[in-house]
Structure to design on (147 residues):
């Protein structure tokens, strides 16, 4: 076996990392990927809200490890780079958006306006949305309906 210098190992590691594209292994040791897309509600871009990717069950029914990640939705568009992206594999999707109600309540003497979730529960609290994140770049568009 030939001896390998540290610089050779570093160079080979750098090349492998560069060739791996937009997916990568995070600090927790899990493979993550970039994802971006659009979210519409009744055919219109969702003005603002959030989208979460939560690791779900794999094909064998085993829970995929990893923490949920979240992106802000602005004018119907969201994006997560690979370093902050979801875990590769099956993910449950939660989409939330709130609006002001014009009603107020007091919390420890501070008057706060009550916000109301206006996305149907089937897209958040009781979400039926799933997305299979692949290594590399992903485009995940969601068209939601209030009916």
């Amino acid at each position: 076996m030939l001896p390998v210098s540290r610089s050779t190992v570093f160079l080979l590691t750098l090349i492998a990392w560069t060739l791996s594209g937009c997916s990568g292994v995070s600090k927790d040791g899990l493979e993550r990927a970039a994802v971006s897309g659009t979210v519409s509600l009744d055919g219109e871009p969702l003005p603002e809200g959030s989208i979460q990717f939560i690791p779900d069950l794999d094909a064998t029914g085993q829970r995929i490890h990893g923490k949920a990640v979240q992106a802000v939705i602005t004018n119907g568009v969201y994006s997560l780079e690979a370093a902050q992206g979801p875990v590769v594999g099956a993910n449950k999707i939660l989409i939330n958006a709130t609006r002001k109600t014009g009603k107020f309540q007091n919390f420890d003497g501070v008057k706060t306006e009550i916000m109301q979730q206006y996305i149907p529960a089937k897209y958040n609290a009781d979400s039926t949305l799933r997305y299979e994140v692949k290594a590399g770049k992903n485009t995940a568009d969601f068209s939601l309906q209030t009916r």
About this structure: The radius of gyration is 20 Å. The chain has a mean pLDDT of 84. The first helix runs from residue 6 to 19. The longest strand covers residues 98-107.
